[in-house]
Amino acid sequence: MCVLPSSAVHDTSLHGEPTGSAYEAYRDELIAAGLLIPLGVRGVYGRSGTFENVIDRFDALVTKHGRALNPVVMRFPPVFARSNYEKIDHINNFPDLMGSVHTFLGDDKQHRQMLGRFEAKEDWTQDLQPAAVMMTPAICYPLYPTVQGKQLPAGGRRVDLQGYAFRHEPSDDPARMQIFRMHEYVRLGTPDEALEHRAYWLDKGQEIFESVGLKTERVLANDPFFGRGGKVQKVMQREQNLKYEFVIPVGNPDKPTAIGSCNYHLDHFGTAFDIRTADGEVAHSACVGFGLERVALALFKTHGLDVADWPAEVRDVLALA
Amino acid sequence: MCVLPSSAVHDTSLHGEPTGSAYEAYRDELIAAGLLIPLGVRGVYGRSGTFENVIDRFDALVTKHGRALNPVVMRFPPVFARSNYEKIDHINNFPDLMGSVHTFLGDDKQHRQMLGRFEAKEDWTQDLQPAAVMMTPAICYPLYPTVQGKQLPAGGRRVDLQGYAFRHEPSDDPARMQIFRMHEYVRLGTPDEALEHRAYWLDKGQEIFESVGLKTERVLANDPFFGRGGKVQKVMQREQNLKYEFVIPVGNPDKPTAIGSCNYHLDHFGTAFDIRTADGEVAHSACVGFGLERVALALFKTHGLDVADWPAEVRDVLALA
């Protein structure tokens, strides 16, 4: 699965409350410096021009490295088809993270009834209907349906993606946002091609992070599967070595945060959307994801809140004028 | 109000069905050229790297012009606080356009019940609860709560915004997307300052569009207020000259589409969020919005689907390498 970055390491620490104040302290520093703008919901922030510029520059650096692979560039919006959401097991595995978009489809009379409840401060959302879209839970989910029922060319397909993902996970950790951007490279093809892609990015990702002064560690990880049944899936995901994360301390010096990850999906998406390799086999897939807000937060944590004071070589690599 | 771009002109045409096929024809051309990628929901598309690059280059052009005003740069995500949504009358005026985000807050047992309904192909969304966020209906809505209860400096405040807006408005017109980006400049201040901002951008916007070969017309317009009561509000908005749009034929040669607009909000947001001028009066506000996907669609319509064939001066102004 491609719900990134999850950081099981981080999950644990966040639920072991004593460290919570470290996250809040860093969040408050970022707000005081004007880099994040509180919007009244935990894990939902506005960003300053400076914060956004760091994201743009790092994103451009990733693009520069990724271009060598000659990927197809595609961009998807923050919502995707509910009918495709229903094919990818997210409702089984991560129901607590979902964002289902609802709207009002009634007439004038029903509108007056809803406004009556709204004005009485009752739950007015019971009058809404599910729209045809869901929030995108991971940047690569909308990709697979676009090749549904198709056969890939020999060598498979490489795709460059960037966009917003939503995860309903309110937190005081500034690195655990409910809505955030990822830059991803996905490979669809044979098992060997998928694994080669992941191996390439495990090294390339480390190299990119090092080039901007981020000393990340690569660790085996798992996604935050829901509930009691999810425990087994977490163990299986680890035993099969499906997910690796690039971790570095961000909100808490003692507990590293995932700022990127490399995932092998086996034939999960190939089967769900009937995608075939050139040889007619079910396609496998793998992806690397760079968590753009988390990378920016790691850069501010590592090099300081004033971009002008960052090391000259980091400013140079990021082309921060 | 700032629900942009609305194009009442366009509304009318869209509902007068005989012209529908022109929209579908242009949509199908864009898809065949690989510029838009269908995602299984009307008005929700993926974009190619080429399409996205045109958006980026036009966005950079707008930024270059806007920089002269020395605005504060802020960026907001595609969702914002439900508590703030409830203060801006959107539920009264545009309920049919809203996107309310819902999620699953239950335990293992409730999860099994929801999955039972899901597997039986019943409505499983009745098990969801409203999250603390709504889809952002207009790029500038999240801005006003950030200055709630505050007094502006003398001269007011200018803000540069860019981000996604959601409007539940399924359509075959490629220019009427359910989720799209706007680049906005907002001015908060006295009535004179707000009106000066709008007058400035009515000229500057036209100049920017002309510089890329788009011959837009400025027309008085209104937002698509809901229902029978909304008819009065449409007339009032027009009589008070609150909304102007930059229109140009895009999906249909006979019916122009708004690709930008200039709006005077009176004290709507100042009152809703208790924002005061330096003199202690309720702040007024105005904004200009450039509809980035619509501008790209207008450029492709005007100059052709192959960017390499666009006029040299347009490519030059957009810095299309």
Placed side by side, the strands forming the largest sheet of chain A appear as 3-7-8-12-11-10-9
Task: Categorize the overall geometry of chain A.
Answer: globular
Q: Count helical runs of chain A.
A: 11
**Radius of gyration of chain A, CA atoms, in whole angstroms:** 20 Å
The total count of strands of chain A amounts to 12
Q: What portion of residues of chain A is helical?
A: 25-40%
Assembly type: homodimer
Strand content range of chain A: 25-35%
Overall mean pLDDT score of chain A?
94
Q: Main interface pair? A: A-B, 71 and 71 residues
Give the biggest beta sheet of chain A.
7 strands, mixed
Helix and strand content put the structural class of chain A at alpha+beta
What pattern of helices and strands is seen along the backbone of chain A?
HHEEHEEHHEHEEEHEHEEHEHH
- For the record, give the distance between the C-alpha atoms at the N and C termini of chain A, rounded to a whole number: 38 Å
Spell out the blueprint of helices and strands:
Two copies of one chain form a homodimer.
Chain A: H1 8-15, H2 20-32, E1 36-41, E2 44-48, H3 49-66, E3 72-75, E4 79-81, H4 82-85, H5 90-93, E5 100-103, H6 108-119, E6 129-135, E7 157-166, E8 179-189, H7 191-211, E9 217-220, H8 227-239, E10 243-252, E11 255-264, H9 268-272, E12 284-291, H10 292-303, H11 312-317
Parallel strand pairs in A: 3-7
Antiparallel strand pairs in A: 1-2, 4-6, 5-6, 7-8, 8-12, 9-10, 10-11, 11-12
Helix pairs in contact in A: 3-10
